[in-house]
Amino acid sequence: MxxxxxxxxxxTSSPGAAVLHPAETxxxxxxxxxxxxxxxxxxxxxxxxxxxxLQTLTPLHVHNPTMxxxxxxxxxxxxxxxxxAVSDIRTVALPSEDGEVMSVWLLAEIDHWNNExxxxxxxxxxxxLVCKYDFINLLCMQVTRISxxxxxxxxxxxxxxxxxxxxxxxxxxxxxxxDKRPRPSFVSRWNPWSTDVPYATFTEHTMARADAEVASLCxxxxxxxxxxxxxxxxxxxxxxxxxxxxxxxxxxxxLIETYLGIMSYINNExxxxxxxxxxxxxx
Length: 283
Prior knowledge:
Blueprint: E1 19-25, E2 28-34, H1 44-47, E3 54-55, H2 66-73, H3 81-90, E4 101-110, E5 116-124, E6 127-134, E7 139-147, E8 151-160, E9 172-178, H4 186-189, E10 199-204, H5 220-237, E11 248-251, E12 254-255, H6 262-269, E13 277-278, E14 281-282
C-alpha cells in the first residue's frame, strides 16, 4: 500500500527530496531552497554550492509609456503652452463687439467633410470665437466669430453618416446652427474648403483625458451648459429686431454627409489638424 505523509520531517526525508525552508522577513516570506542531498554533506551538495542558498523573489513592474509618449507629441500639452495660448487668445476678443470673455475651451472642430481640427473656443457675452491657433509658433492664425443672438439651434448627439459612407467616426459631438439655415448650399456642401456653412460641429480633443492639467478645458458637458446659458442670455439682452428670438436645444444624431472620405481619412489618421511633432519636423 502506498501512503502519502504531508508532515514529512526534513531530517528524515529521503536523500532525493528537495526541502523548502521558509523564513520571516520584513518584506514578506523568503524561501530557502535546499537541493537534494545537500544537507551538510559533501559530494552532491558541493556541486551546487555556486548557487545562493537564500534568494528573494521581487515582483516585476512594467511601465507602459504609450500614453505619456503620445502626450509629448502634442505641442499644446508642453509646459506653459496652453497658458500662453489662452493669454494670447483673450486679446482677440473685442470688448465693444464681443463683451467680456467668460471661458476658454480646447476642443476639436469637425468640418462638413469630416476633417478634425484642433481649436481654441472662447465664449463671450455676445459671441462665440473659434480660433485656429498655432501651438508651435504661439500665433493665432484665424478667428471665426459667431454672434450668440443669431444661434437658433444647439444639437447634441452621436455622429451619423450616409449608409454607403466609407469613412465614419464614432462618438458624440455638439453642433451650433445659426441664421435659421438648416444646411449649406449644394456648392458649399461639395467644396471641402468652403466657409459658407451655417453651423459648427465640435467634439472632445483627441487627448482630452490624457493630461489632468488641461482636462478641465476639454469637458464637452461643461462647454455645452455654459454655451446654452450664454446663448439664452444673448437672446434676452441683445435681441435681433424683427426676428423671433430663442434657441432650440435638441438631442439628435449629427449628420455628416461624406461618402468616399479619402481626404478626411488621411487628415484624421495622420492628425494633420493638430499641432504635433512628426519625426524631425512639427506642424
